[in-house]
Amino acid sequence: MADKLLEIDNLSVDFQLPTGSVSAVKGVSFDIRPGETLALVGESGSGKSVSSTAAMRLLPELATTSGAIRFKGEDLLQATPRRMRRIRGNAISMIFQEPMTSLNPLHRIGAQIAEVLARHKGTKGRAARGKVIELLEQVGIPEPARRIDSYPYELSGGQRQRVMIAMALACEPELLIADEPTTALDVTVQAQILALLKDLQARYGMAILFITHDLSVVRHFADRVCVMRRGELLESGETAEVFANPCHDYTRMLIDADPHGHKEPVADDVPVLLEARDVRVRFPIKKRLFRDSEYFEAVRGIDLTLRRGQTVGVVGESGSGKSTLGRALLRLLDSQGDIRFDETDLARLDTGGMRPLRAKMQVVFQDPYGSLSPRMTVGEVISEGLRVHHPEFNRHQREAQVIEALKEVALDPAMRNRYPHEFSGGQRQRIAIARALVLKPQFLLLDEPTSALDRSVQVTVIDLLRDLQRRHDLTYLFISHDLSVVRALADTVLVMKEGRVVERGPTEAIFADPQEAYTRELMRAAFIDAAA
Amino acid sequence: MLSYTLKRLLQAIPTLLIVITISFFLMRIAPGGPFDGERQLPPEIEANLEAAYHLDEPLPMQYLRYMGNLLQGDFGPSFKYKDFSVSELILQGFPVSLEIGGLAILLALLLGLPLGVIAAIRRNSAIDYAVMGTALAGIAIPNFVIAPILALVFGVLLAWLPAGGWNGGAWPNLVLPVIALSIQQIAYIARMMRASMIEVLGSHYIRTARAKGLSESQVILRHAIRPALLPVTSYLGPAIAGIITGSVVIEQIFGIPGIGRYFVQGALNRDYTLVMGTVVFYGALIVLMNLLVDLAYSALDPQIRYD
User: Fold this and answer.
1) Is B227 in CB contact (< 8 Å) with chain A?
2) Residue B300 Cα, gap to closest chain A Cα (Å)
3) Which ipTM value was assigned to this complex?
4) What are phi and psi of B153, to 5 degrees?
């Protein structure tokens, strides 16, 4: 057994819910050898996180586990709680998907790392502090001797994930479980964190169990891959082998899940629908009574022209100002500069004057869970705009419009009396699109509409958007941090950084030959496998 | 921090001004006056009395006069306790009220917080249901019902403790009023602490703490309790206000010579200056307590820095 560090043997996990038993993992077996990297890949609900959390025995009490999880021959499912606590954070440690919330907000980061050292190694005081500084340095935190006394809120998401990694490495574990460690991070940061993990793995010789929904991330990262779906292990093998010859259709679909297609640019003589000149948005940081307030400039002078039927993709990392720009164009935020929509100067309109135009300019947001009111049925959500913009419609007319809108987005109109929580993320995003479409808009602001969705669902939503654009001659402003989605959908791309446009041009040209260093960096990070 | 404190104190001025103005005119709208007794006073004497206290002047004039005196720190003389100024009465009553109120808050925290924590840890167990059921009853039953029941059971039927009176602040006299005053707050604090603990225990950083290999008690003591205290801390402002208003009733029921009793008697007697004095005092106290609570909050949460 010496060649197997961790062996998962016929593991099943069931959750005992008030509504009955739900089985999340069904007889899964795999193993990890010392020093290797195993990727556990699957979309939401596949049981990948449940399997790894089971190995740490950190599942909630309502979960029942059967099978065996052997760590160096010892069955962890049979270990006493005391024994498990000796292993956690010591021989096996874990990093998580949520860097923003995984650190205790009230403790200094140094103290949080030192806690592991005190717990497992008995290292305290000066010695512990020295070790923590060393760890922070290894994970690439600048000025570690000063940063050690920072609180989590003073660090960015990427830095917080580095602190989590430092914490996980403190006791030099033999196995690191990384549960979607880069999913919540910008692409460039994701690439840095992956490189860091690889580097540390070489230094410490630890094995990594890498859990992800994104197969392309692990292509050059993992030695072996296990693909899971709905609690079952579909296939496993050497990474290169799985990518070259996937046995299962589902795996093939995951490998191939990058959205396809591209959009032909519209001709230069097509009339302009929306034109913006020198748009600026600033937010007050500090209000002062007698002096000028301090401002943060989120958007710093952007020009933009959208022709009918055009899709302009706006890309950039978080904080680049892309969402702020979108909201300013729709006058959902106050801004300076000229915005003309369909020959109307929006700056001159007050709230009442904007209202008739609102029907023509609609928006779909990123979060399909948060942006639909949980207290309204799908039909009510979709018809609400009709009540405002078409008060002349009676109930039957509204109903007919709702049914038509649901058909447009390929949902069963019979579902209109259900509530949003009964739908999956992809279905909810379709509902959000139907809500926008029912008003027969000319312009849709799509603010990361596919970012919260699984890759396989993303593809279908992108196809839907492309199809709707063709049928209704819609104009899109498509905001996304996901370059592959933008490449498939947009005919023109705008690359934003710190509130400014650093590069713009036809999609094909930008992707084929990016001019700016920043754009190249984004591309390299986004298409890791293409570059490597 | 200092400039923040000063700013908050400045903001308190309009608040207090509104409180004073409203209560001044409300008092005057209420029928009757300070010199209405069982026996009608001769009109000349009443006129003389009113002139002596400037009650014969037009109302706006009286208001300005009161505000002017207040600015000099003069609450005026009491109409009913003729040998005392309102300031003297407040200074006499405040230590008594402070003792009861302070003990009640202390008891509420000492009982409410651990009960909430235990209920959260043993969620959906018999202990949880018992604590939460009792807490619900504690919230539902008003203190003016609890106080006489306590006095009846422990003071009269069992005769373990005095049913009322102050007796110079001897501890047996303190027990029942303090319990009556704190029950509702114990219940609120236990419920809030439970809800907040449950939320914290489900958070990602608690998962991290467990993944470090900490024991459950280390997880709770080091990582869960402090963040769970934050919402409870912000409730302390209203809690103190609740204790103060509660003491008005409790002091009356147990016959305790605190400010609350002066307030009730002042209102019944139309002792304008006494009521106004206690209102101003209470108002300032609540504003001050809220400020202290907010400052305490920033001590707990490093992310909140006032400047």
Assistant:
1) yes
2) 8
3) 0.79
4) -75, -55
